Fold each of these.
Amino acid sequence: MKPFTLTAPLDVPDALDQFRAGSAYLAGGTTLVDLMKLEVLTPGHVLDISLLPMHGIRPEDGGVYIGALERMSDVAEHELITAAYPVLSQALTASASPQLRDMATIGGNLLQRTRCGYFRDPAVACNKRVPGSGCPAIEGANRMHAILGTSDACVATHPSDLAVALVALDASVELIGDGGPRRVPLAGFYRLPGAEPHLETDLRAGELVAGVAIPALPAARRSVYVKVRDRQSYEFALTSAAVAVAVSDGVIAEARVAAGGVGTRPWRLPAVERALAGAPMRQEAFEAAVAHAADGARPLSQNGFKAALLRRTIIRALMTLAA
Amino acid sequence: MEDTLDTAVATVAGPVTVEVELRVNGQVRRLQLDSRTTLLDTLRERLGLTGTKKGCDRGQCGACTVHVGDRLALSCLTLAARVSGQAVTTIEGLAEDGQLHPVQQALLDQDGLQCGFCTPGQAMAATRLIAAGHAGSEEKIRDHMSGNLCRCGAYSYIVAAVKAAAAELDPEGQAR
């Protein structure tokens, strides 16, 4: 680890004031300390933000607002989440390990970095870590990598399960910077890699994630997160699906579908949602609806299986909701 | 430090010392530490508490698991300064009055270890999951113990030990 100064601001203005180029905000530390040990990240100044007033899980406009410093384990088990948004609870519980869920915060989860092995190894090229240096994953070990939203510069998968569930729910992220607070839809917060994969979000320099706002969504009561992975627990997704449906008389009135493990950012599937709307809550309808789930996919040498696996993952999620 | 913060870019010339007040197993210790020092290295190298093990040192194996407050923490991914003033419990703090904690006793009784290297971390994870009411089924126990790797492969005996300890500590939790 490279040396750094360490401060713990007591309020947001103080934190924003202390932040400068080369600073990093520290919350749960499960991404930042890990990447500092690997020297993928080398901040000269670390701002411990754990004392900032960004806690609490509370009702808001029929939905719920989650402070950015809430821990994954607490959110997963919270009474405002478990019944109204099972998909969120399940996505959180399917993430990481109990230790990491006890440490990691909601804000940090949304800003966690890709697990691409080339990004995590400073000895090799990576356009995300060193812009313009190249992408060894495109011709290399890419079984875990993305098939959707990729570019010639980067094929790294977005690793967050939580973000997939939140995108399906049309959640917004609240940001706070020198210009005051602002809210942006989480789906648009994440950028596609394009030619600049080092720019991952629309976060401005020094801006903090203050919280997440999830709108009221009756369909979310009937929702599920299905995560397919190499191990049953403590593993990142090969594919995942966050699905919510409102069903009336056996017919789907509204569907929300987002996918993880396949995209360079959490991947909403509006075409699948449209195909499900008005369809009966039956397997044949699910199979027809997911036919185009992986349209536009650009499979790499080792991850061609992900397109079919994604379709089956969504069907599994829908079958779970139909049971 | 103030000088550094006044510049446009945060950079430091060399190691930075920070003052840390650690509360470990009920004892308060004030230490001067390099800001980079992890809680794990502080416990082992400065406080002589070597029960907490350094396995992978990158947050993947669970051998360094401790409690901060009533939560689990991977001490290898925790900067010591980050938990200044907070209550830390290590494996050395589980036994009371010379009596092993029920989880420790169950690990012994059920042969929940071979080499024993992962055992302190297993015990810390197990006490947390039982307290949180997650010991209701073997499946849940396995899921909540999945952050602790055991290279000897004593998993089935570890699960048995957690079940046995949960039956003693939280009989109601068994039915949840």
Amino acid sequence: MTIPVLGLEVPPIDHLINWPSFLFDDTPFAINKVVLIYFFATIVTILFFFMASRRAARVPRGMQNLAEASIDFIREGVILQTIGPDGMRFLPFLLAMFFFIFFSNITEVIPFIQFPANARMAVPMFLALLVWFIYNIVGIAKQGPLHYLKNSLIPPGVPWPLLFLVVPIEFVSTFLVRPFSLAVRLFANMLAGHLILVTFAVICAALFSKTLLVVILPFSFGLLVGLTGFEVLVAVLQAFIFTILAAVYIGGSMHPEH
Amino acid sequence: MLRLLLFTLAQQEPGELGDGLTAIGQGIVYGAAAIGPGIGIGIVVGNAITAMARQPESAGVVRTTMFLGIAFTEALALFGFVLSFIL
């Protein structure tokens, strides 16, 4: 018993995030829109720093200025605050990861692309696994395997009977939930943003009619524009949060709590 | 009212009732998962604002820590969001 005017046809979620592959069909190298967006993000990240460093001058101008500001932001805002001065060798990794995630998120609001590639689980999961391997390897190399396991499983100052409870919890939270939540945080934020934009776009399209309901259209459209601006903020923020959490995890395995 | 409801239910195909209940379940899962993190993020941001107002010179450090706290708190709501699609 849907009222025809209000009967909104919101497309099902498979229709929104499943893209057909159009090249190299039925092979592991099949290419669809999501893969193209990742190519775009990779190329733009490489080009950005290549162009910035091509004519490097003592007094930076234009592109170089932007690149130096972003490097400074990762160094001051992320590494020095979480790892410390000895974490500087992770600067290239964290910087590249920040820009790759940012460029594959920002396609959410670029006209005619309008799909955040990170709204599919695969690449966020891969990046989270990469971070997982790095912080485990760093911890093992820095502290030795037994010390690393002891420091990450046994928090300091816990009375020994509680250890039976604390050690399994710490194991699950450090080695299992951490990479999963890192991936899901990025993936679910981008998926939610995409769904919100789609919902408001569908509402706007349905209100664009010759009925009296058209008076609501400006409000709905205004909200759509506002939410698009909000999604730009979310794209930057999620790239930043992913980077800083990776830095926190790496810092945690480099400097254990005593 | 109840008779109307039962009459409507009797008209449904067997599969449709399950689909409807699944949809209700999805709504409840996400709604319930958003309660705790909503309160938690409120506490995190509120205390961060208090700290920034008391010591404006430490606003940079507080802001970074605030985003970290939000990220950890928000994860639970996002698990609920993803779970509501898996259901």
